[in-house]
Amino acid sequence: MAASEGAITFLLIFLIAIANLLHDAAADNINMAFIGRRGLQDATPTKSRNSSDIQHSVRLLPRSDVVPRNATLAERLATLAQHDATRIQALNTQLNEAIVARRNNESSQFSSSAKFSVNAGPGLYMMEITIGTPAQTFAMIMDTGSQLVWMQCQPCQACVNQDRAPFVPVSSSTYATLPCSSAACQSLPGQCQSDSSCRYTYSYASQASTQGQLGTDTLTLLSTDGTSTAFPGLAFGCGYNNQGEYGGAAGLVGMGQSVLSLPSQLGQALGGKKFSYCLVSPTDTSSSKGTTLLMGETAAENASSMGFTSMLVNPAVMAALYYIDVLGFSVNNQRLNIPAGTFSIDSTGGGGMILDSGTTYTYVPNAAFVALQQAFDASVRLPRYTGHPYLPLCYATSGQPSTAIPPLTLHMQGLDLAIPLENYFIPVDNQANYCLAMIPTAGGLQIVGNILHQNYKVLYDIDNAQIGFASRAC
């Protein structure tokens, strides 16, 4: 009998312990921040998880529709150049419109009254997110030049090609529309409906666009280690009228600095508005390779080993683009004679240099390119190759003895970045021709593209308005 009573006592203690564990686990699943029906709010969970316990390592892969797997190297690079040209032309158009709007004393802030903002649109890398209850998983385009998270929803009036069936909001028990009075709605250009639901219109520099309804639902991010974390109340666009080419993706994940971007919405829950990536080459279409996107506090691990430069603010546009303070270049450890202010944002909001994951090559003003070309020609003992259609500075190596290629350094405020050879001197065909992965521009926006910063861990620290770099083997 005593043994039986002891067993019962043990069982009761065991059941109480299990109940406590389940209670704690349930509390741990409550998110610390969300955007609710009234807009930006703070949640007050019963028990919040320490942000350092939430590890997010999301896989990014180059878009196979932009860079087909069966294409030759020359064809891949040409396709990427065409993608760049369309993106940059449209970016400059939007930037000029924003400058004119500012000059006319119209609002340049990204609000419901704004007519112009600069949003780059579909980039070059894909990620997967899961939304709704029950969960539905979608491939989305990650873009550092955009602000809004949105996906195509059913029933859509104008639909874009999508590999998987679109999101059906009425099938999710956790989906809710946002009212016009919400802070989230007021941060987007749009209009109110008779039912007071928030409708938005969002245009990209690439001439793509999305129109639809702003709502909230539970976002689940799937990490590369197989774990997942749910974030209730993510505000996103449910697009019913969509235009553009998205390569089969369900929509776009904006990684800019606005309140509706993914890093801003998840910042409090993950220990800060921060994210980092380490990009592989966009020409590498191997399904086994990819890059890693880290979010929040995890992204800033080992930040003490990184070099940092400041993010700049362009007064003419909303902070969708990541401007950096570029001072110049060195070739062969010699600082080039480039006029001061060449890379600066001018008084109207024109010019300036951005860091962009969705652009392939690096675009510099003519004056800087001429200085670079002269410096390389003075050091490289190879015949020039002049047959390339869009890269002006090339050399032929076939049948030539080995020769040294001079080192290249990018000088930014507070940081001198020594660029690896493969990030600026690239093969362009199977004939042993190599080119400088830079293109001169006659004016407008200047861009540090993804080739120049591939195989770097790049940390976007929005909280502290800085960008960090550390060399990695991605």
Automatic annotation (TrEMBL):
Q: Which GO terms describe its molecular function?
A: aspartic-type endopeptidase activity
Span of domain Peptidase A1: 125-470
Look up keyword Transmembrane helix and say if it applies.
no
PROSITE patterns per the UniProt record, alphabetical:
ASP_PROTEASE (PS00141), PEPTIDASE_A1 (PS51767)
According to the lineage, what is the superkingdom?
Answer: Eukaryota
| First and last residue of the signal peptide | 1-27
Question: Which key words tag this protein in UniProt?
Answer: Aspartyl protease, Glycoprotein, Hydrolase, Protease, Signal
Biological-process GO terms, alphabetical = proteolysis
InterPro entries assigned: Aspartic_peptidase_A1 (IPR001461), Aspartic_peptidase_AS (IPR001969), Pepsin-like_plant (IPR034161), PEPTIDASE_A1 (IPR033121), Peptidase_aspartic_dom_sf (IPR021109), Plant_Aspart_Prot_A1 (IPR051708), TAXi_C (IPR032799), TAXi_N (IPR032861)
Residues the record marks as active site: 143, 356
Q: Which SUPFAM superfamilies match?
A: Acid proteases (SSF50630)
- What family is this? Belongs to the peptidase A1 family.
Name this protein carries in UniProt:
Peptidase A1 domain-containing protein
Which species is the source of this protein? Answer: Adiantum capillus-veneris
Q: What is the lineage of its organism?
A: Eukaryota, Viridiplantae, Streptophyta, Embryophyta, Tracheophyta
